[in-house]
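Cross-check.
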Amino acid sequence: MPPIPRPLRKLGFLTIGLFDEDDPRRGHESTLEIIELGERLGFDSAWLRHRHLQYGISSPVAVMAAASQRTRRIELGTAVIPLGWENPLRLAEDLATVDILSGGRVNPGVSVGPPMHFDQVKEALYPDTADVEDFSYERVRRLLDLVRGKSASDFSGVRGFEVFSDRVQPHSPGLGKRLWYGGGSLSSARWAGEHGMNFLTSSVVKAEAADGPFDFAEIQLSHIRAFRAHHPDGEHARVSQGLVVIPTDSASPEQRARYEEYAAGRTPRTTSPQGPARLLFAPDIVGTSQEIAERLHAHAAFREVDEVAFALPFTFAHEDYVQILTDMATRLGPALGWRPSG
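Predicted model, tokenized:
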């Protein structure tokens, strides 16, 4: 097994928080229980996916607020909030509030672009401004400025009995350094680096070259290096990788068979770029912790990071997540050189 230039320093996981439409509370409670389990197992971070008009977490900031009151140490992130659905000023207020409540544990990950199925939702989302909304990186820049304390108003002072601030309140001083951009292209990697953000890279990248062969790990590696080349912190700039990883050490035979079937069903999309955006997906990694560790050690992009947020599969049951997280923390993490937080 080749040596790892960057020992694994932070172990995290990512969940979509699925729920049944007829019993949404049970699904959200399951998500909170999984985050509590993650803290007990020593994970450094728990990350929430964001899904609008689906049966997953539509309000990760609210879920983070709830989780912050049931945990004391684990960091809480979003991967990612699509800013096309958000007002940056209001989001800055919400994020700062939850960061204060959590004791400075919030790691907001964001991305840009038009909302999914925009033509179908624009009348509900932006009935008066759909044609002029800016879904470019400018929307991220606005959020960055507001979170980092730049002026949101040309007035501050006292009027009557009320005191007004010209910047977002509450202001959480460390939050600006914990903002992440979730990107899968060279341009997003460069932009995030130039603006001093952290970089979330997942199991999806854009195959921007015209011709193959297409190697997911090498494409992802080029994004990581471009990000760090443009970041003020250079090689020390933070990058987190989010592959789908399913350890089977303590899984039952039925679980192992189901996990392998799940991964096999998703494998065809990993062989070539998909759709007009030319998205390339990483294969899901299923096996014992030792087998997974060997594959990760050989993964060109993994060898450049010291933080991960392994993605939990979308459709598994609560008890499956308990088994997977327990194996990650007790077997896979140590096999990668990680040690649990106290």
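The chain has one domain: 10-153+163-335. The CA atoms of residues 91 and 340 lie 32 Å apart. Passed to J.P. for a second look.
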